Amino acid sequence: MLQKILILSFIFFSFSSKGQNLTKIADSIRIKNNIPEMAFAVISATNIIEKQVIGCHKISSDINADNAKITDYFHLGSNTKAITGFIAATLVEQKKLNWNTKFFDLFPEWKKTSNNEFYAITLEDLLSHRAHIPSYNSGEEYQKLPEFKGSSSEKRKQFCEYILKNEPTKTNSEIYTYSNAGYSIAALMMEKVTGKSWEVLIDDILSKKLKLKYKLGWPNRYELNQPWGHWIENRTLVPVPPTDTYHLYLAEPAGDISMPITDYAKFIQLNLRGLSGSKAFIKSETYDFLHYGKEEYSIGWANTNSEKEKTSQHSGSDGTFFSFTQIDYNKKLAYIILINCATEEAQNALFDLLKIMKSKY
Fold first, then answer.
1. I need a labelling partner for 356 at 20 to 30 A (CA). Which of 65, 113, 152, 168 fits?
2. Residue 172 confidence (pLDDT)
3. Which of 141, 161, 196 is the last residue of a domain?
4. Are residues 175 and 54 in the same domain?
5. Does Oxidoreductase appear among the keywords (predicted)?
6. Do both 151 and 45 map to the same domain?
7. Closest C-alpha among 58, 53, 85 to residue 70
8. Is residue 13 pLDDT above 90, yes or no?
9. Is 236 a member of any domain?
């Protein structure tokens, strides 16, 4: 631990005293911590101050190999939640839903077969993790599920119906109970009032209206010459092929969007502009609610709100990629780091880099 502190202190000293290039520092951190590819950005409401993609699409014998492109897609994992929350906000502003709309007001036919402890859950409860929905954050939980059939949207609907028949998560100590499954149930409400699948709603907003590039699922499932996710097998970091049976279709609204950092940064800029008091596709007060409307976790964003610090942030990982975004309300800046592995070593390195980015800006 002492050695790590000394190394990080040296990096900070070198950075501040010699004005080292942030890309060189990031690349040294990447190589030292066995991260194949990394994208990072520092952005304001109107400018991308720093932006870079470095490294290689998948691990090889040469960690210095470089085929990274600024157009590379990275899997966002649970940072998808902020996008699903954003879609919900557009529907609330269109008066197709309210934050306090109850799930069973839209699906009264499910009441007879559902657990009555869920009867009062609302859209806001689901998106802020206050509905006590079982988490479904691990592969083990999904392995116990029955087989669902049909399209992704149809399977998610069966998944939600199954969940609501079972017991809620009980907790007395936490303000919220984190749940991927809650976002699938919230997406079902959005589908009900629009007559469109979550996939179509995402495309309507991200692609058609905001002109942002995105994919559902891993980037290498669309093109092999894109970043591959990585995980540990036999104590070795290995790239995960696109043919692997691992998938997230039941929890897509919670964590299965991939984007290039340039496009993702534009989405985060909307949030920065909104939090700065401007209308940015949706109302400024809506952004305030998305980020800070609830204590500790609002709608797709965790938050810290004290006299010393006011930030909203989120990390995301499906075990093969890792992403982190933080918006500093007082500085009016956002910091984004995306990597294509999720080892403990890599995650620690990501937060080391975050400290350096924040020390410069």
1. 65
2. 66
3. 196
4. no
5. no
6. no
7. 53
8. no
9. yes
Handedness of CA 157, 162, 164, 165 (dihedral sign): positive
Beta strands in 56-128 (DSSP E): 73-75
Half-sphere exposure for 162 (CA within 13 Å, toward CB)? 17
Q: What's the average model confidence in pLDDT over 170-197?
A: 92
3-class SS at 138?
A: coil
Range(s) of the domain holding residue 129: 97-196
pLDDT at 18 over 70: no
Residue 143 in any domain: the answer is yes
Shared domain check, 232 and 123? no
Residue with tokens 């499906």: 318
The residue to which tokens 């080292």 are assigned: 20
Q: Which of 54-68, 137-151, 262-276 has the highest mean pLDDT?
A: 262-276
Spell 278-306 as b/e; 16+ CB within 10 A means b: eebbbeeebbebbbbbbeebbbbbbbeee
Residue 173 pLDDT greater than 80, yes or no: no
Q: Over the stretch 290-317, which tens digit does the pLDDT of each residue have? A: 999 999 999 999 999 999 999 999 999 9
Same structural domain for residues 74 and 220?
A: yes
Task: Name the pTM for this structure.
Answer: 0.93
Whether residue 220 sits in one domain with residue 324: yes
Burial of 37 (0-12, 13-18, 19+ CB in 10 A): buried
Query: Mean pLDDT, to the nearest integer, of 130-138?
Result: 93
Sheet holding 73-75, edge to edge: 73-75, 257-260, 215-216
Backbone torsions φ then ψ of 306, nearest 5 degrees: -140, 180
